[in-house]
Amino acid sequence: MWHVVEFLRSYLRQHWGVLRHVEIKDSGLGILALLEKWGEGSGAEGEHASGQDLIHSLREE
Question: pTM score > 0.70 for this model?
Fold first, then answer.
């Protein structure tokens, strides 16, 4: 299942210029989009790392 999450995150990242304006109603995809959004803009590297930590902690559970 983890490969699906990685694929979706990669797809979101590649197409973020278009998808960032879309209202995502699916809760799972919405969380992934939120994590992508945290990593966007103003060099928010620390916030992006926090999103990565969240994904890795969820993967371990």
Answer: no
Question: Model confidence over 10-39: pLDDT tens digits?
Answer: 999 999 999 888 899 999 999 999 988 888
43: left (phi over 0), alpha (psi -120 to 50) or beta: left
How far apart CA 26 and CA 7 sit, in angstroms, is: 16
Q: One-letter amino acid identity for 18?
A: V
d(CA 15, CA 12): 5
Q: Where are the domains of the chain?
A: 2-60
Note whether 48 and 57 are within 8 A (CB).
no
3-class DSSP state of 44: coil
The owner of tokens 């620390």 is: 46
Integer Cα distance of 41 and 7 in angstroms: 22
